[in-house]
Amino acid sequence: MNESSPLSSAAPSGPVVLDVWCELQCPDCRAALDDLRALRAHYGDRMELRLRHFPLEKHKHSFAAAQAVEEAAEQGRGWAYTEAVLGRVEELDRRGEPFLVEVARELGMDAEEFDTALIDGRHILIVDADQAEGKAIGVTGTPTYVIGGQRLDGGTSQEGLLERITEITDRLLAGQPA
Fold first, then answer.
1. Residue 29 burial by Cβ neighbours in a 10 Å radius (0-12, 13-18, 19+)
2. How many C-beta neighbours within 10 Å does residue 32 have?
3. pLDDT confidence bin for 12, thresholds 50/70/90
4. Cis before residue 27, ω within 30 degrees of 0?
5. Are residues 69 and 62 in contact, defined by beta-carbon separation less than 8 angstroms?
6. Facing residues of 18 across strands?
7. Which residues contact 122 (CB under 8 A, 6 or more apart)?
8. Residue 88 pLDDT greater than 50, yes or no
9. pTM of this structure
10. Is residue 169 within 8 Å of residue 147, measured between CB atoms?
């Protein structure tokens, strides 16, 4: 987790930071995946895309899935894992934690270590901190984006958000205020 405030942007010499408050059991987050891929492809290392955890109580496997993403990141496959699970939200709904470990195995990660991480809860504090920080800045649902000090809520519709994020990013990269 980065120590900077989620409502601040990167220094002009560094990449623009886009925090994405997400949960892996959320169909709206799955819908946002194409936009996130487009942003990553377009900006490359000029944008730091940070997945922030905001598990929702209505999704019973979302807290475990957030911990699983942290383990995947520790094993060097955080975004690949995130994309793989988001692409199969219904399967996560049905199968829960065994599915999370199976995806890790499919991606060539250490599935035994993955399973152990879910059992011992080594990533709980990261997930709790992200969720608390999200609540503190007004996140109520997922996906929610924070870029250049602005919060953009995508839970009801992704329409227009890619364009708005691109507009803010381009201004920040040009050294202008968001």
1. buried
2. 22
3. low
4. no
5. no
6. 49, 147
7. 67, 71
8. yes
9. 0.85
10. yes
3-state secondary structure the chain: CCCCCCCCCCCCCCCEEEEEEECCCCHHHHHHHHHHHHHHHHHHHHEEEEEEECCCCCCCCHHHHHHHHHHHHHCCCHHHHHHHHHCCHHHHHHHCHHHHHHHHHHCCCCHHHHHHHHHHCCCHHHHHHHHHHHHHCCCCCCCEEEECCEEEECCCCCCCHHHHHHHHHHHHHCCCCC
Count other Cβ atoms within 10 Å, centred on residue 150: 13
The first and second tokens of residue 149, run together, are: 């000090």
Q: Are 99 and 91 in contact (CB under 8 A)?
A: yes
Tell the residue number behind the tokens 């924070």, with chain if given: 146
User: What is the per-residue burial (b if ≥16 Cβ within 10 Å, else e) of 91-123?
Assistant: ebeeeebebbbebbeebebebeebbebbeeeeb
The residue to which tokens 């995508």 are assigned: 154
Residue 22 contacts residue 54 (beta carbons within 8 Å)? yes
Q: Mean pLDDT across the stretch 45-70?
A: 95
- Residue 99 Cα distances to 53, 64, 84, 159, angstroms: 19, 11, 11, 31
